[in-house]
Amino acid sequence: MSVAQLPIFPPASLTPQLAADIQRVFAAQQHTALTLRSSSIEQRVAKLKSLRAVLMEHRDAVVEAAAKDFKRPAVEVDFTELMPVIMDISDYCKRLHKWLKPRRVRPSMMMLGTRAWVRYEPRGRCLIIAPWNYPVTLTLGPLIPAIASGNTVMIKTSEIAPNLSAVLVKIIRQVFDETEVAVFEGDATVAQALLELPFDHCFFTGAPSIGKVVMTAAAKHLTSVTLELGGKSPVVVDRSANIELAAKTIAWGKFINAGQTCIAPDHIYVHSSVKDPFVQRVSAYLTEWYGEGMAAKGAELSRVINARHSQRVASLIDDAKERGARVIYGGAVDIDAHFVSPTLLDNIPDDARIMHEEIFGPLLPIISFETVDEVIGRINAAPKPLALYIWSNDSANTDSIIARTSAGGTCVNHIAAHFLHHNLPFGGVNNSGIGSYHGEWGIRAFSHERAIVKTQVLTARLFFPPYKPRVRKILGWMLKHL
């Protein structure tokens, strides 16, 4: 069985100038990376504060760009694009001294007579490949710990959200010299050219299918990776849940940014005894907030990013309906306007595409269940999700679901809260990601944890040749008491 080769774009796919710029900047960052190893925490904090100030200067520009790319409401932009970044920077500025402080460790029995500690050192030259769905948060989010850790960075923004990409380029170039942080725009050929370089760490946010390409490219240079991927994040609503609160919160968390969120609820398992009232309350909130069907075109509701993705989402509805699914709310589509209304589906057969592909749009399949064991079996039969949401006031059900499943993160009686809780690691597992970041986990992602041992009394000389009988006696005593 042959192994699929990573697609290599010929140099001619890039303009000669852009190809030369990439090589030039990468070479220039080598010297900067070495210099930054000895940079002070105060210097790094000053850069983060400068980034925060410039980002706030461009607040209106970010809102305007998001409106052009997504027709995204200004409140959503402030809440999802600016607030997480500002909060993150403030956190790093306050706690960086603590997070970077060398960590002393106690000596083990074999290491008596030594002192040891862990030192956090920058990885070096890092690559960040950013997605299009939340360009500001998911570009600057990893950039913050990369800078705080003392690295240089080359960034590839997404061409799919061109207006937000253009604003990001302005912000980054205003704050940083390209020898420390450089940003490149362009299509997949630019990303491929960057992936050919021997970076010290690569941070990618996007689909699992592209994550495999990134990991394959990184493997050629033994480059470490952080992969923030996606998948189909399920929600479980059991019979004990607060249906009113669950319906309102799930409707908000699902349809913000038109469902184009990696941790958005992908599909819902609802206990059959509460399914009808749950659907009624979700439908009522959607009508109150947006209006049903084509009426939602005039609401403060983000659009699907482009016509291609609108067609993809619409095809999921058509495929499900052809296989027997029922649209119980919404279902309106205007491809030219990049509009798909908030849509609820029922009676979805297992072979429908919507049950196997990441939806990444404003469609919400609702599936009834009878027992928690049934739901756990279905969750475990699918790839491990980035998020798992549980709505329940039954601690036994909650504990059972958490203990018997695997997911990148889990919220009980909330949606997406673990992303905003920066005292927690954020990341996936297997198909939904490798590694994590946010807070101190961001430092770990962009730092090498260097182990250092300093010998004060050389007890190891007891075991130097020639080996005497007493050595085995000492080892025998240690083996019994370790």
TrEMBL record:
Keywords: NAD, Oxidoreductase. Pfam families: Aldedh (PF00171). PROSITE patterns: ALDEHYDE_DEHYDR_CYS, ALDEHYDE_DEHYDR_GLU. One of its GO terms (molecular function) is coniferyl-aldehyde dehydrogenase [NAD(P)+] activity. Gene3D superfamilies: Aldehyde Dehydrogenase, Chain A, domain 1, Aldehyde Dehydrogenase, Chain A, domain 2. Residues 19-450 form the Aldehyde dehydrogenase domain. One of its GO terms (cellular component) is cytoplasm. It catalyses: (E)-coniferaldehyde + NADP(+) + H2O = (E)-ferulate + NADPH + 2 H(+); (E)-coniferaldehyde + NAD(+) + H2O = (E)-ferulate + NADH + 2 H(+). GO terms for biological process: aldehyde metabolic process. The active site is at 228, 262. Belongs to the aldehyde dehydrogenase family. This is Aldehyde dehydrogenase. It comes from Pseudomonas migulae.
